[in-house]
Write a structure and sequence with these properties.
The protein is mainly alpha-helical. The protein is about 70% helix and about 0% strand. The chain contains 28 helices and 4 strands. It has helices at about 1-15, 35-40, 45-65, 70-80, 85-105, 105-120, 130-145, 150-165, 170-180, 190-205, 210-220, 230-245, 250-260, 270-285, 290-305, 310-325, 330-345, 350-365, 370-385, 390-405, 415-425, 430-440, 455-465, 470-480, 500-510, 515-530, 535-550, 555-575; strands at about 20, 30, 490, 495-500. It has a two-stranded antiparallel sheet with strand order 1-2. Strands 3-4 form a two-stranded antiparallel ribbon. A hairpin with a 7-residue loop joins strand 1 and strand 2 (about 30). Helix 23 (about 455-465) packs antiparallel against helix 24, helix 25 packs antiparallel against helix 26 (about 515-530) and helix 25 (about 500-510) packs parallel to helix 27 (about 535-550). The longest helix has 19 residues, at about 45-65. It is elongated, with a radius of gyration of 30 Å. It starts with a helix and ends in a 14-residue tail after the last helix. About 50% of the residues are buried.
Length: about 600
Amino acid sequence: GGEPLLELLGEAEAAGVVEETAEGPGSFAFTHALLRQTLYEELGAPERLSLHQRAADALIAISGDRPDAPAAEIAHHAYESIAIGTAERAVAWSVRAAERSHARLAYEESARHYERALQALGFASEDDGTRRCELLIAWGDELRTGGARDAGRAKLGEAASLARGLGRADLLARAAIGFRGFGEMGVPPEPETLALLEEARDRLGEGHPLLRARLLSLLTGTPPYCLSMATREALSCEAFELARGADDPRVLTDALGARYWATLGPDRLDERLAVGREALAIARRLGDPRVASIAHEIEIGAYLMLGDRVRLDAALDAYVAVAEELRQPSLLFLAGIMQASRAMNLGAFEEAETLIRSALERGRGTAPFAELLFAGQVFYLLLLKGDVRRVASAMLELRERAQQTLGSLAGVNPLADVLELVARSALGEREEARRGFEALASKGFETFERDEHWLVCMSALSEIAISLDDHPRAAELHLLLLPYATRMVSHDLLRTVSGSVHATLAQLAGFLGNLEEAIGRFEDAIATAKGFGALPALHAAEAGLAEVLQARAAPGDRERADRLSEAAETGLAALGSRRPGFVARAEPV
């Protein structure tokens, strides 16, 4: 009865064996773990099993149906007594404990509960293959969410094999979705990953619209599908129509992410922001921060390209807040990359470098593209610092990493080839640069996909055309860039800017002898950089305008050029930078 138990607890408390805890009246714990372990080991196996079973029974009787039931404790006692017939109960309560831990953002703890549920299933009267597959998927997803990408994919691979044997296309699709993973858009998967996604899509058919929506969403950002903007559009539209009206945040997050990927590049910023607004409305309706993270990520890229500093800062702060709330390593990694980019764009180079390296440590083992983004950030940091000695080698390293991570994009996406041209130009290897430039130009610059790489590629190619004294190609690039004059030359994934398109057009106009246009464009570039707070871009534009004014030599030009040149030199020196540009200059301003 209760009174003898209380008397025993009183004696144990007086002896210093147990003490009352803060969890509530009547709650006791051993004063030292060693005492607990010693007493536990002195029990015989039958007695231990019986006590665990009785403890589980008592806890369930007291609070089993309540939302705040101690699921982890019940799961533990049920698991420890599975030898006497509590395996099914151990599975059910381990899953409940896992879900409770996930809700508390304790992802590693949740994964351990799913692992225990699978172990308990092996002792059940009937080891249900479907249930085993579902638990493997849940365990793999939770491992990935907690940052253990490889371990999670191993479990999801097991689940995929089991799903095939069961003839369950829906479970195969769920395993494939987890295997690809959130946040890997744009990164070519290993051959087996692409094959799994396509197999799941083909087997699923039309019977599971929400799963099909998620598969199509992932394929939207998976090469070779994502190498065509038209293909991105078709896949993402179908996925979003299938997902429309769903209340599952995972489905909507994937579908909105696909629509975001279909609107990357410089052409569809209004539509991209509309997708962001819809994502934010859905996030508020569902109360789901993961959907909100997509909304803020969309806003960050769009406002960066528009040069809207106020809205960009607000979106970045909101994204960082969501990442810190969810505590998921992949989101924290991306938040660090975005913060580093912002610092870099403003000219806070030391802060940027610290943030870049911190982000890399978070991203290792979590994001398969962490090393690539790190290399890209280092490249842009050196670019904005105008570090001639190091920038070329960084460009070649970035190209190598891009080829390793992005695969062979020859003839489809010229980013890796453009990076090599930039490096050759910076190293003074003019003939190699000319041959590569001619090879790209022969395909027609107008044929390049207007995707997340396009503005960076066109701006870099413009500087290379000038360095190679290629007037016809400079004129061609000038025409291509004219419609985007008010955009910032930014990369939608790295979130870095080298300046405004005004500045690139100014360089091209000056090179082509259109000095009046060049002066006007550089003035616009200076105003844009000031409004954005982009000090490296500001001082580069000041130096460029000074050169054009010197060339025009109208009355007052020389004095104005001297003032601008001095401002640029002083400003760049304060930043610890030389004049930035894709084709690095050997001398400071």
